[in-house]
Amino acid sequence: MMLHYRFRQLSSHALLVLSAAAVLLFGAADAVTVAVLQLAIALLAAAWAIRKLRNPYSFASTALYFPFAAITVVGGIQLLLGTSVTPYSTQHGLSLWLVYAAFFVIAVNVQADSTIRSHWPLGACWLGLAVSAIAIVQMLFSRDYVLWRSVPGSHSFGPFAEVEHFAILAELLFPIALVTALETRHRFLLGLAAATALAAATAASGSRMGLILLVAEFTVILIAEIATLTMKRGRDARRIVSSIGGLALVAAVMIVATVMEQMDPSRRAAVSTIDSGSLTAAAWYLFEQQPVIGHGLGSFLVAHDAAFPTANTAGLVGAEPFRLAAELGVAGVAAQVLLFGLLLIMARTRRAWLAGVVPLAAAWTHSWTYGWLGSPALVLIALGVLALVATDGVMRPLMGIFRPKDNSASTTQTHQNHSPQRAYQVSSSE
Amino acid sequence: MFDRPRRRRRLRSSGRPSTTPGVAGQEQASQEPWVALALEELTQGAKGPQDAVEPPRSKPNPPPPTAYPLWAVLPTALLVGVAVVFVCQSAIRTTLSQSWIGNPSLSSLERATAISSNNSLGWYRLGLKQANEGAAGAAQRSFRMAADLAPSDSATRIALGLEFERAGQFHEAERTLLDGSVVDAGFGVRWSLANYYLRRGDWDEYWLWLRDAIQADPTQLPLAASLSWRANADPATILDRGIPDQPDTNRGYFAYLYDLGQLDAMRQAWPRYSAVLTRTETPLAAQFINRLIDAGFVEEAVDAWNLLCDNILLPHAPLGPEEQRFLTNPYFLTAPSGLGFDWRAQEYRGVAWSRLPIARGRSGVEFRLAGTQESGLTLLSQVIPTVPGEYTLKFEFATQGMPTRTGVGWVVKDPYTGETLRAFEGLHNAEGFWDSGDLTYTAPVGTRAVVLELYYEAAEVGVLRRGGVLLRNVELSKTDSDGAVAL
Description:
Oligomer: heterodimer
Radius of gyration of chain B: 47 Å
Largest interface: A-B, 46 and 44 residues
Number of strands of chain A: 2
Strand order of the largest sheet of chain B: 1-4-9-6-7
Number of helices of chain A: 18
Shape of chain B: elongated
């Protein structure tokens, strides 16, 4: 029988590979890639469920499951009661959200082990570095291509068909890379390289919103780092120099890349200006029409078309928080409020704030001007970041997870220091 | 700090057996070396509390997995199983159905609707395919399925309505399209209704739905107007019954008529259009005035021109032949625009013109001749609304580097008959100073407008002039009345 640790490790690798593959395969925008992702994550969830039945293990639970539960339950109700404007779209939407929920649950459970958890920031750094490198090389040598696919005249950048999606990915990964560089000495170079590459690629992409949010993230991390260096006296000079040098390098790259981007009119012309204000008003109007049950998960475009037939739906890309509210009604609002409320409550460490709350807040802000919930790759990355926050300060009991009667604190600490083979997740039968 | 691992190693390496009798937990102590050490230290005489050994904590046991009761496990397992099955089948169905819908063959579309029966797009595409292949009954069924699945999608209702109409089921066709107009406030279904009533010859309903369609989407006005023009070429009826009297539609319809070249219809639409004029519409309005002038509708052109001037949409004073206001932009306060009654400066090879700022709020215009220009050019012209009578033109000019006979002069023509009313001999050179000139001509009875032209004609064949001619303060007055009235 496979060890629990080994099982978690394999699951973690599977989730990381799926996330990276989703990003690299054009952001999982086409139906086949989405289906493969859905099947893979569903099978993984089934494996976890079967293992739980056959060989019980401690199940990590967190209050952050509730927003996903709310979305999927309401989606299911819409489908069962037939209240959705387009049942087909709702079925597909519900299927996707179930997969997202399963991904998040498994991610939280695998990250409950600190050894495994440490792989995730590392994976984020490597992914950010690879995607940025691909994007920059592609921009220099074959602008009309997305990897090997020719898409002339598109707003593509990196593996994404839409430049704003790349910017959102960078917003999610950049703080993790920078915090990894600043806090983990043996990953300083990797984190710094990833952060620098992400910053340069975002500046070169021409996404103004992406660049603004990246600068905001950088500023927050810079202030936090300065505050830390100021407060902790007697820190070794090498650490201080490397921190300041790393931040200065990232800042310099951002400035140079931004200046170069501004000098390139072709990239600037590729950036579309979207009027998200009217879309926000339209989404709010739709929410007011069906505030209780919503128009149906995944049915926003159809509902919008019916209500505003003369509007050009081709530009419907922003106001995502309100769109979710219009689709799910009050449950959509509650899910978002709950998610961010819990996030703020649960993020108690500096690392959780800088590498968790900051990137998620940036991506959420970006969703007002350019939505990304339609890109499964970005959702998976965001869920990974969310799981990092949920499991930060591993084993801190939230909803009764790992809550021994005695010595709960020492139990937690002890487990973190254990080698995998000595971890107590080994079941009695093993 | 208590270093537990080091302590443990030390204890293990000491290998001391637990020999202290009579101590509770002896058996346990034999298994836990730290207990033995602690007891030994205690029995050998502890010096005080500060020497007491803090017992290391034992390795914590993992919390036992919660044993959930069967009534909780079974529903949860069932729920997870259902969710997994739902996700898998949804993913497979969606992928296959989308793949098959993308294939235009009938069998693929049938497979798509079979595997994903709630996909309205699949049914809609299948219906279109069946309709194309002449399977009217099957197409109707497919469209009905699509309409049931997506009630707010008007495209399926339009297709179903057309199928009913094709099958001669006019009542059903009308009802279906009207249902579509209820669920969709857009252009498409209203446009289909207008077409339907046009084919049925119901003109009242046609105009009603056409206006409704245009109001739903004013950008589709050219399409709607073109249908009306093909169906009923009476401009007045189209304007009155087919075009909603709204600013956007009035603007759009006037632009459509301009593109169509329908001057009479434009004249009818002008009152509506002129009521919603803004500065952005000025070029189109001025082009309309040009067409009016070209077609000989001088009075209408003057009225339209004066409307633009009165509303400060053009930077000129209104014209009034009766009030002795004949000339537009006489002091070249703006560059010649070529619109309406303003000056028209033509572009020629070898000729360049520019507006010169001159003192006291009066400007001029300069023509530079490169020596490569052709002969017989109209450098500057203006159409002047005129009433019959005698007129005097006065102007000031200067030359730069021109010979005595400059080859530049004035000519006055009737633009509609082509008759030359008066030609002025070429200007003499006026190097370095402003000279003045005048020209008197008579507009005979029946003249509505004249065109005043500044021409260049080579004085000698094969000899082209090189230099500059400057012009300013052009004034026109009617001199056969009691007194000359300057502009």
